Amino acid sequence: MKDSGSSVKQKDLISRRGFLDRMAAVGIGATFASLAGQLPASAEAAATGDPEVSSVRGQVGWAIAGLGDYGTTKILPAFASCKNSKVTGLISGTPDKLQKFGKKYSVAADSRYSYDAIPSLKDNDKISVVYVITPNSTHVDFTVKALEAGKHVLCEKPMANSKAECQRMIDAAKAANRKLMVAYRVHFEPNNLKAKELVTSGEIGKVSYGVSDHHRPLVMNLPRDAWRMSKATAGGGSLVDIGIYSINGLLWLLDDSPVEVFGSTYSPANDPRFKEVECNFTGQMRLASGRVVNFSSGYDATKKRVDIFGTKSVITIDPGTAYEGNKVYTSDNAGKLKPFYEGKSELQFSRQLDHFSQAILANTPIRTPGEMGLRDVAIIEALYESAKTNQWIKL
Ligand code: NDP
Fold first, then answer.
1. Is the CB of 365 under 6 A from ligand 1?
2. 277, 285 contact by CB (below 8 A)
3. Cβ(367)–Cβ(39) under 8 Å?
4. Could you tell me the distance, in angstroms and rounded to a whole number, from the CA of residue 316 to the centre of ligand 1?
5. Which percentage of the chain shows pLDDT scores above 90?
6. Rounded to the nearest whole angstrom, what is the distance from the C-alpha of residue 71 to the centroid of ligand 1?
7. Ligand 1 site, residue 71, Cβ cutoff 6 A
């Protein structure tokens, strides 16, 4: 089955609004549980910002902060496919990049900024959103400054390097009355949405288990990986970088919330990449439903996969969280694996951007809010604590 979009039902939109309003009304502790809402899968699709399904009109101006690998190869090009989002600003510590990408994306010279100049964004009404795509340790500072300048912020994952930093960001958004979203792109990816629909509809039966593995090699001499070897900058190793996809994805697909976690690390001896951060992380989460799920992350092999085990069928998304080429498979009770669905993965980037723009234009809720980023960083902190103490850690 091939598809590129999803249908919208008015009742689902109403239901989604109700869910998020309830979420907004509760405190942070309760938010961990309420992030696992009873959200119909088609309502998930409705909020994707898919130009085919959204009726929101207008355009929102975005400034991209951090002209590195992900920002320049995936995000800037995605604006060409957006309906409600356009690039009107650039923020960088490298003047040559400001000039090069300013020219390429027609960003006026007076809308190109250094990081130090973020506060002066307050005087630029062509920019409504700052998208923070810089190393993890810088997220808190750039996000808070952009919010204080009156801009909405989309921040890359992991939201920050500690719960306290995440909380500062959430508080700054509240104080400035601006929106804060964390860039969990797979919530906008057609194959993940299809898997969510199969789970939510009950089509694969009762789900008692899930497992997800995220691995990719960390490359010593790549600039984008240099800071990932530093604990102070990255916040941790494969767990914070790609294990976070397993954690966030399992909780979303199973519509559940974490109660306690257990984890272990492994790094090959004498590997210069792993002096400060771990290579592999293997973990378990016990969920509010009582189910226990497993995951792993690593910086040596290549795999991005999610399996959800239903009584009638097991869904496999493999790859599950790649930039392109994700695919959904099912396997029946005879264990036979069959290709089931292949949506256009590359839509995830423009959908994510337009979702935030539409939330700003129509003042509608965000699918992946700051509270979700905080929850995931809290889980990560607890997992590292577990790896250190060899104990289950309650959340
Ligand atoms: P890169 O190193 O390629 O880019 C980061 C850019 O941030 C740099 O090029 C630089 O741009 C800027 N920067 C600002 N402060 C610093 C600093 N102290 N040290 C180094 N660079 C700095 O990294 P990525 O693009 O791979 O990752 C950036 C962020 O995006 C991370 O948070 C990462 O987790 C996230 N990410 C998310 C992905 C996803 O699929 N959602 C995929 C890949 C990354 P400039 O010269 O313009 O200042």
1. no
2. no
3. no
4. 30
5. 85
6. 7
7. yes
